[in-house]
Write a structure and sequence with these properties.
single chain; alpha/beta; Rossmann fold; Glucose Oxidase, domain 1; 3 domains; six-stranded mixed beta sheet; globular; binds FE2/S2 (inorganic) cluster
């Protein structure tokens, strides 16, 4: 057990403690805000990083949650300050929130470094906000606890349960095929997102909140509590109380983020059928913590861990059902033989202690190891001459007949090209074709948008086709499904083999064999490579320029090359 800090050991004491003119000014200006000296001096100053804004529909409850967290911090003897950070509302921000994940991470790190902060509560949940705040907090490496936004309530339409994203894609296919009128569609719009909270399928948000709990960075059971449940408010205030203790005990993110913790998170990722995006984010988090994590590691675990969470898009239920069935502690209790139960967590107890006694209340929602939804984990890593550095597919959301497939390519050089031609009656496409999208990766788009679930051609939808093999260097929403090969690395825009594919080339996908091959002879590929020219970068200034000049490829986590490793090593600011 680490010795408890003394008040004069607090980082904030450097701002508030000394008897000099500069510190006097710090105290005076804090008093200007109405606080008495005994409220802030010698007490842990706890920042609440709040990723709220009026255009993030998933975080509308955050102003109330900040109040709950502040209550807990004050009860435990801390001094709570709210530090708003950039919100990344997944749906309304363009071209992609992924472009701004690293921006949020940098903002969080610098907010913490530049202010008199001893510890931090990270309030986030909508897709990229979770990895964004975690990446920044790891790099700063002050005591931290994560408060997940929690999922929204189940969707509802004409007696049907609707799941975020997953049912949008499903019913939109019906709409394009002429089976659903506009009035019905508008009703779906109003019924599918009907409370505060994140998407309630096992999309990127629910996946990342679950994995953060598995990493040991949030309180046990926190990740599945619906956003509008009063238990969520109690979890928020408990997190506020807990962070004050973490500061006194000097327990920092790197105390929890060990290789074993990442193995636990990957194991949970496979068992919940997590979003493909989680792979990119976990790699980025591990690299921030100085822990190497390659794609093969995911695949090794994927082969041994069954899919237990029966949640859309890989299963039938939603996050609200998962919570009532026992939530993540109950699922991890089923997985106990695959987990390192000695891993420490921010609760003060080990992972094993956190899940001791956790019960499953609905064994169709949370399956047992002997009755899984599927025998293997959610995500598979493929390699081959089309993706030398790897690519990803959510194998549990692929129709069985496409697990092994060979077909001719239909190539789109950009999203604009795809939008212009996909519904063209003359497009030479059949259900056996392989749709290929180039230049949608980290540099090419830029920002690697969620374009990877390429829309199916209308003429095939009208024939009843609902899945085809699709390949891109883009990502895909975690709520999506289908035979979509994603994150092809290296990407087309920097000269990856994806850039060399031409209409009619045969492509072979073999998910059980973990292969993705472009069946074109080497001499012809060499000729094409010789003729290939990199397009001029459109990004001439500002953040987008910084991004394309420094972003890593998908298999490296899409972080900036200058931000990985050495957590907590940047010098503290000079106070003068
Ligand atoms: Fe926010 Fe899906 S749009 S989590």
């Amino acid at each position: 057990m680490t010795a408890r800090k003394k008040p004069e050991d607090l980082r904030s004491f450097r701002w508030y403690g000394p008897d000099d003119l500069r510190s006097s000014t710090h105290r005076s200006r804090t008093k200007q805000m109405g606080y008495a000296q005994e409220e802030f001096q010698g007490r842990p100053v706890i920042a609440i990083i709040n990723t709220w804004n009026d255009l993030n529909s998933c975080h509308t409850h955050f102003p109330e949650r900040v109040t709950d967290i502040k209550r807990g911090i004050t009860q435990a003897g801390g001094f709570a300050v709210e530090l708003p950070a950039m919100s990344l509302g997944e749906v309304l921000m363009k071209p992609s929130t992924m472009l701004y994940r690293n921006f949020l991470a940098m903002e969080v790190e610098e907010l913490l470094r530049s202010n008199p902060v001893d510890g931090v509560v990270l309030l986030a949940g909508c897709d990229k906000t979770t990895p964004g705040v975690l990446m920044g907090a790891i790099s700063m490496n002050l005591p931290a606890i994560f408060v997940p936004a929690g999922p929204m309530l189940r969707g509802n339409w004409r007696g049907q349960t609707l799941g975020s994203g997953t049912d949008v894609w499903r019913y939109w296919a019906d709409r394009r095929a002429g089976k659903l009128d506009q009035a019905g569609w508008f009703e779906i719009e109003a019924g599918i997102a009907r409370s505060a909270g994140t998407c309630m399928t096992m999309g990127t948000a629910a996946t990342m909140m679950s994995l953060t709990e598995a990493l040991g960075l949030s309180l046990p059971g926190a990740s599945a509590i619906p956003a509008v449940d009063s238990n969520h408010r109690r979890m928020a205030s408990a997190s506020g109380r807990r962070i004050v203790n973490l500061v006194w005990q000097d327990r920092r993110p790197t105390d929890f983020l060990t290789p074993a913790a990442f193995d636990n998170a990957i194991t949970v990722d496979m068992a919940v059928g997590g979003s493909t995006n989680a792979i990119i984010h976990l790699v980025a988090l591990a690299r921030r913590a100085g822990i190497p994590l390659d794609l093969e590691h995911f695949d090794r675990i994927s082969k041994t861990v069954p899919l237990l969470a029966n949640i859309r898009p890989s299963g039938a239920y939603l996050m609200e059902d998962f919570y009532y069935a026992g939530g993540l502690p109950a699922l991890m209790a089923q997985l106990r033989d695959h987990l390192d139960l000695s891993a420490p967590t921010v609760s003060g107890a080990s992972l094993g202690e956190n899940i001791a006694g956790a019960e499953v209340y609905n064994d169709d929602v949370i399956r047992s190891i002997t009755n899984p939804v599927k025998q293997t984990g959610g995500t598979a890593i493929l390699r081959g001459n089309l993706a030398p550095d790897g690519c990803v597919i959510k194998q549990t959301a692929v129709e069985d007949h496409l697990l092994r497939h060979r077909g001719p390519a239909v190539v789109f050089v950009s999203m604009a090209d795809l939008k212009a031609r996909i519904d063209d009656d003359d497009l030479p496409v059949t259900p056996d074709s392989v749709l290929v999208l180039q230049n949608a990766g980290p540099v090419g788009a830029p920002g690697m948008p969620e374009w990877g679930q390429l829309p199916l051609p209308k003429k095939l939808l009208q024939q009843g086709v609902r899945d085809m093999v699709r390949i891109s260097d883009a990502r895909m929403s975690g709520t999506s499904y289908g035979a979509c090969v994603l994150h092809v690395s290296p990407e087309a825009a920097i000269g990856g083999p994806l850039a060399l594919v031409r209409d009619g080339d045969m492509i072979e996908l073999d998910i059980p064999g973990r292969r993705l091959e472009l069946l074109v002879d080497a001499a012809e590929l060499a000729r094409r490579r010789e003729a290939w020219q990199q397009a001029a970068m459109a990004q001439q200034r500002g953040y987008a320029r910084l991004y394309v000049e420094h972003v890593n490829q998908a298999h490296e986590g899409c972080d900036f090359d200058f931000l990985a490793g050495a957590p907590g090593s940047t010098p503290e600011p000079v106070i003068f």
